[in-house]
Amino acid sequence: MRFFARIVRQTRQAWVGSLRLRMTAISLGLSLVAVGAIGGFLSYTIERNLYESRRNEVISETQSVSGSVQAQFDGAINAQGFIDIEGANSSAQATIRATTNSPGLIGFAILRAPGQATDQVMTSTSSVGFPLAVVSEELRGAVHDDRANVHYQSVEVPGGSPGIVTGTNIDVPTSGRYDLVLVYDLADVAGNLSFVQSALATGGLFFVAITGLIVWLVTTRSIQPIMTTAATAERFADGNLDERINVEGTDVSAKLAESFNRMAESISGQINRLATLSTLQQQFVSDVSHELRTPLTTIKLAGSMLFKQRKTFDKDSARAAVLLNRQIETFEELLAELIELSRYDAGAAELEIEPIAPAALAQSCIDQMATLARAQGSTITLFAPGGHKPVDLDARRVRRIVDNFLANALDHGEGGPIEVWVDSTSSAVSFAVRDYGVGMTPADAERVFDRFWRADPSRQRQTGGTGLGLAIALGYAKLHGGVIDVWSEPNSGACFRLTIPQGGAVDPESPLGLPPIAEAADA
Amino acid sequence: MLARILIVDDDPSIGEVLELFLRAEGYDTRVAISGPQALEIFDEYQPHLVLLDLNLPGIDGIAVCRSIREYSGTPIIMLTARTDPQDIIHGLEAGADDYVEKPFNEQILSARIRACMRRPLPTSSSSLGVGDIVIDLRGHVVSRDGVPISLTPLEFELLHTLASRPTEVFSREALLEQVWGYQYKADTRLVNVHVQRLRSKVERDVDDPKIVLTVRGVGYRAGEITPA
After folding, report:
1. What ipTM was predicted for this assembly?
2. What domains appear along chain B, each with residue ranges and CATH number?
């Protein structure tokens, strides 16, 4: 069953998949029907004509034979009005033998018509091997009913070939009516016919085959432009933006080629414009980074020198030095993040992969935040069911993502416990940070990755976030082919989970739940 | 006598504020605002250290770095505002000992300066042999078959550190801490680039090193130690 199902499926695929196959099959089918109909008609007509002419020949022969025989019998009456019936019979047979020359005569008989009483009775006679069985009552009845004409009936003669039986009435003086019956074998006609039929069939099949071939060639020729276009489009899609089709002539395929070329021209133009834009963007980022960093270097150094000497200033100036110093730091951080984000936007960011144990990476992130966490009253706990073996990651960027998750958890965790989760499978490694703080509404959770978006602008931030942190984190995750998922409920806290595919997996399932739930054994 | 630092930056205000800062830290300073001027002042001033901006008019920082390296091992710290990692590699390959990215933290800058100018490691023996070269610790000279090989102080110290504990494999992080004086995680490319530079000077065949060996996945160690 399965084998047949496969055959059916493959056939279906081939059918749906090849225009050429479909066209050829359809035209083969149709021409087969047409050839069948025409061949059938021809064969039928020829058969009829062949049989008809043969029948006419046979009938006219029977007529002439019966005429001769009748004359023979009529002439056998002597002057005294007597007749030697058996003698006449013998000579009638001789006459029949002499006058028939049509091929295929199997035999003849002179049979006494039934149901009559006469002075004399002439014995019914027949030639040797006469197939009496093929002479039907029907024929003889017809002869009886209509004595003037020759009657016939198609039969199958012994040996299986088609035959014809003719019968006509003969009046034998003093002995009444007799039926002259002749049986012809039409094997020669059948032979001719089957020759004609096989010639027709062979010709028809040739015709069908040639039609199929022609359709195949014509289809091939006419879908050639489509195939060329498809192949060119394929190469174009692979990035060969200079691929074009040669336009020949002015027909519809030339029009197709022209349209394709125009489309390709337009697309490659757009792409080139975008590429130029991207290059400009990259250049701009590089310029901005240099142009802003240089003055910032001076500002920063000068600011920190003022800050160091603030004790020697009056109260207001000292305060100004403190504010200046703090804001310079914020500005610097913002600039760094903007540049990083622009680099990602411009596609200039490249992963720097190195093998590192995810759990160790998470631990070092936690260690770095320890002081801040203590200040907030939060405890950070690492749960690492897996992730102790090194995997390939851009450690700096992943650390940056986890740091960002942690900073958010500290900012919004209300001093509650914070859980850091790490686990890995063969297809993915995952980091999650869970807090039990204020949480977010689903609407807010959807916006957390928006640039400069803050859940609660009035909120005092402890970690000095710029509003770009999660946008950068998401960019870094995407750079790894990974995703960041968010779970949050108001007053229940939030969980951010980073999942990075491993070993070429695409959209793997995260090894961690969202949020991860500590099992009794782990807790 | 105060240690002399040459500041090379095309932005005069950076030069000035660095001068203010470094003088407050107790250094003597001069400022150059172009490549040719930097080379001129370098010859005349004989600084102990150069702070070199990579982006200079005329001759760029990398070319200045290369010129200085042709005849001097004076420590060079690049100041870079560029974000392209390739620029940093180019600078290191041109012979810079270390780099600081603008806008830098002044504490980090002064830590990097101190690390670059610190005294050589105290040593008990007078010389060490690694492979077919001899390290003269007192004279700070490395030679092969009596022919001296010119190394910068940084390269000398890198080689000395590896040779002083020949059985030990040094990770890149350990070398950053011991040779560059980094307390914190830093850019391990510093190590890679300087090992390449060192090898190009001391190895007979760079592709088949005998003096500084790579231990795959771990770090570097010295070649076979020979009694000097």
Report:
1. 0.71
2. 4-117 (3.40.50.2300), 127-226 (1.10.10.10)
Q: Is B84 on the interface with A (CB under 8 A)?
A: yes
CATH number at A253-345: 1.10.287
User: Best residue in B8, B10, B17 to probe A by mutation, most A CBs within 10 Å?
Assistant: B17
Interface probe for B, chosen from A282, A287, A297 (most Cβ of B below 10 Å), is: A297
Assess B186–A contact: CB distance below 8 Å, yes or no: no
Which of 191-210 (A) contact B at CB < 8 A? none
CATH code at A354-501: 3.30.565.10
Residues A330 and A419: their CA atoms lie apart, in Å, by 28
Would you call A301 and B18 a contact, using CB atoms and an 8 Å cutoff? yes
The two tokens of residue A463 are: 């970690």
Q: How far apart are CA A321 and CA A299, in angstroms?
A: 12
Residue A423 corresponds to which tokens in the numbers above?
Answer: 């686990």
What is the rounded distance in angstroms from the CA atom of residue A451 to the CA atom of residue A466? 9
Q: Please give the share of chain A, as a percent, with pLDDT higher than 90.
A: 16
Whether the CB of A295 is below 8 Å from some CB of chain B: the reply is yes
Q: How far B227 CA sits from the closest chain A CA (Å)?
A: 38
Q: Judge contact between A409 and A462, C-beta under 8 A.
A: no
Q: Per residue in A122-155, pLDDT tens?
A: 888 888 888 888 888 888 888 888 888 889 888 8
Q: Where are the beta strands (DSSP E) in B33-191?
A: 49-53, 76-80, 98-101, 127-130, 133-136, 141-144, 147-149, 170-171
Superfamily of chain region A20-192: PAS domain (3.30.450.20)
Residue from B102, B171, B192 whose CB has the most chain A CBs within 10 Å, to mutate: B102
**What angle is formed at CA A295 by the lines to CA A289 and CA A299, rounded to 5 degrees?**
125
CB contact under 8 A, A294 and B18: no
- Condensed to tens digits (0 to 9), the pLDDT of residues A462-479 reads 556 677 888 889 988 998
Q: Are A426 and A511 a contacting pair, CB within 8 Å?
A: no
- Using the Cβ of B102 and the Cβ atoms of chain A, whether some distance falls under 8 Å is answered with yes
Please judge whether A294 and B82 are an interchain contact, meaning their C-beta atoms are less than 8 angstroms apart. Answer: no
